[in-house]
Each structure stands twice: as structure tokens, then as C-alpha cells.
Amino acid sequence: xxxxxxxxxxxxxxxxxxKASPDGYTFGVVSTTHxxxxxxxxxxxxxxxxxxxxxxxAAISPDVLVVNPSVSAKTMAExxxxxxxxxxxxxxxxxxRGSSNTLTGVMLGLDMTNVPYKGASEAVTAVxxxxxxxxxxSLATSLRYLQAGSLRALAVTSSKRSALAPDVPTMExxxxxxxxxxxxxxxxxxxxxxxxISAKINGEIVxxxxxxxIQDRMLKLGLEPSPxxxxxxxxxxRSELVKWGKAVKAAGIEPE
Length: 256
Hints:
The structure is a single chain. The chain is an alpha+beta fold. Helix content is 39%, strand content 18%. It has 9 helices and 9 strands. The strands form 2 sheets. Strands 5-4-6-3-7 form a 5-stranded mixed sheet, sandwiched between helices. Strands 1-8-2-9 form a 4-stranded antiparallel sheet. Helix 4 (100-107) links the parallel strand 4 (91-94) and strand 5. Helix 2 (33-40) packs across helix 9 (230-250) and helix 4 (100-107) crosses helix 9. The chain is globular and about 55 Å long.
């Protein structure tokens, strides 16, 4: 049974997972937001690191740094040089305060002006229209614009090149060592699920993710299957909490 509990930056659904019985019958899907919200909110009703059992990372969706074709930079190195020559003059569109693309922009360490919009689609539209020079957005949703030449891709934010756009280099290849901020999706359950149960659920999900027909379907949706062991995903979540926490602090965002 699938129960959608949306709203409040995923906090409503995540709280239900935290408070569920650890009997192996209740699990939830979380995304990158799970690692960002704890640094944005003062009084979360759960602890993102302690109140859950990690099951597996399911998939990642690479983001891509795109520019309007009028921008002279053809590579990230050229874009960095351009940004440094015009401190505070380049604008980048984001989906608003605390969004992953806002924080990824902060991680670049360049002096640019953040122009927040009401959502990712509006941000991309602003780049398409030449109102801002750059945005960091989903590769899957921007791919048609890249293929049409309406946008230019400089780098993907995943740790390896995407099968959707194999010619686009990673940020690490472009001079940003260790830089990886893809959108990710994973499965978690409440804390204290017995290890044999979490291992069994992990095994079944991984088996499904490795099915060729499932992988083909996911890739067509812009998702790259990325299964992990329970311990690997637990460590991944903890590292993501630290990474995004630092980005929120660097962005000067005060928790509310």
C-alpha cells in the first residue's frame, strides 16, 4: 500500500515514518530534502540521523549547471574565469531559499547573485529567456532544451557522468574536487527495525533495482539506479547531513 503524505518540505511524511512501529511493515521514500531540512528548521519532530533505519539508496537524478547560449563560457573553467572577472554581476536562478540548487550554487564559491523563483520550472524559464545567466537544475527536465540548443550544459553535479548526457563532464572533472550534489532518493524505515528484516528488505529492493526492465524504465525517467547496502546508505545519509548543513551555514540561512 502506498500512502502519499506531502507537504512541509516532506516533514509530514517523514515524521510518520519516524513514529511508525519498527516491525518491518512501514517504510518511506525520502530525497535530498531529508538531509537539508534539519539545518533549516529549529524544532523538527524527529532526528534525521537517529530516528530512522537506512534501507538503501534507490536512485540519483543528476543536476546540471546550464547557461543561456549568450553566455560566452563554453566550459566550467571559462565560467569560473568569467564569474571572477565580474564579481557579483552574474545572476543564477534558483527554486528559492534553501533549495538544493541554491545551496549547490553557494558550494561553487563564486561571487554571484542568487535570483530566487517560485520553482525550478520558473528558474529554467528565466535562463531560457536570458533574464539570468545560469541555473543548476534537473538534467532530466532540461535535456530537451540542451538538445535543442536553447541551453548550454557546462557540468553535471553527480560523481560520474550521466548516461543521459555522457558528453557533459562532472564538476570534479571540471576543477571542483569531490564536488557531488545530485538529487537522490532512498528508502528508510523507523529506528530499531531488526537487522534481519532491514537486510531482507534491502535485498529485495536491490534485486528489483538490478532488473534490466526496471533500470531501463528508470533511466527514461532521468533516474539512475544506485543501490547500496544498509550500512553504506546509513553512512551516506550522515555524510549528506554534514555536507548540506555546511552549505546552509555558508549561505547565511538562519533556521526557522
